[in-house]
Amino acid sequence: MTVIDTPVDTVTATRQAARALLAAGNTHAPHVHPDRITRVDRYFTDDPTPTPALETARMQYSAEHYARTTALLPTDLVTALRNEARKLADLNPRRIDITVPVTGNTPRKLGSLPNSLFQEHSELFTALYHSTEFRTLLSTVVGSPLLNATYQDEAITGTHQNRVGDTHGWHWGDHEFAFIFIAEAPAIEHGGMLQSCPHTPWNKDNPAVHQKLAEGTIRTYHHGPGESYIFKTDTSLHRTVPIQTEGAERIIINLTFASVRDWLEEKTYETTAAVYTD
Asked: Cβ of 10: how many Cβ atoms within 10 Å?
């Protein structure tokens, strides 16, 4: 076997380029003040994540392309995030009742919280998105760096399901990673659970949703208020079970992160445009 040595200066230059990429991939927008990011970072440094909880999440993600992250977030931060999510949901008047062709005409019936709402009215979620401590935590779980979304309108969004039949129908994400914070959620008998079918690549020209569901393994997860999770959305066909009961409510905030591969590919954003753009 012939061993080819890489020159030391090439290794150093490549490592520097990789670090520059990570830095460029977490540049914050002008509406996000650095002091807010520092305050969010402090939640994690003052209340470090227990190692066993982090290892449990890491192992679950490896097995399921999903990990419950509830135990990784400090309690005080969770309370503050729930309060802000409620405020944002109450501010938002936008509802949609549509089908989306690139996901096989699956339904979207819910309140749609666009990125512009967060830019104008969020302090915590916009800071959390750019928190170095938070990204490091999630990167440990998924085993990969997390970068800014390649499409600003998809970086931070949310949904509000509060009517019978409300659902975020079967779909995929344009980016590899999504962190979901659940501000409000009904009891399991009222619907609103996450269903995910991992290892199902998305062909926008032929989504074949029912075929992929029949061939795959559908996992169903129930989450209560204040819980959270991260999952691999680009190869996990997923939905929320329709709300079953009048008065039941589900409010979630979605922080979308890109992988390095996401930045290397040319992408289109039909689902974001349909669900979150006027």
From this structure: 10
